[in-house]
């Protein structure tokens, strides 16, 4: 057992009321950060970006563009041009009204875009859970640090109080000695 592990095992019941083995990983990490006096907060975006695959990054980009005003404006312009070309501009339209080919393309686009957006949303949910876990670790560490500060303040207060009592006892002893000397001189 390493020195760090034994230190954590000694403090786990004190701060969490459970043995070190009974703590979950965020609690162990928070306790480790508190005892080592290291920073527990991390950038969740960096931590999550390191684990992203190419497909996940692509899904995020597609969902980001597909949910933007740029996409909506470009798509609306495309639909207006398609309809104008097939109704007024072309003498032999390739997709006459009611635009069956356009409906097929729109259905295929929706069939592809929906799962990509859902993948991105699932990843965002996982990212949110990771953020919550990191926040939990930081909050635990802060609580441990606050409890440790309270202990230190209590110890200082006790030490200060003991010093005051000692000083008062010394003053009482001196006053008693003065009174005895005065009574001895008067009597």
Automatic annotation (TrEMBL):
Protein keywords: Coiled coil, Membrane, Transmembrane, Transmembrane helix
Keyword Chloroplast found: no
Coiled-coil regions, chain positions: 139-185
Transmembrane segments: 62-85, 97-120
Organism the protein comes from: Chelatococcus sambhunathii
Entry keyword annotation includes Nucleus: no
Protein name as annotated: DUF1003 domain-containing protein
Pfam families in the cross-refs: DUF1003
InterPro entries reported in the protein's UniProt record: DUF1003
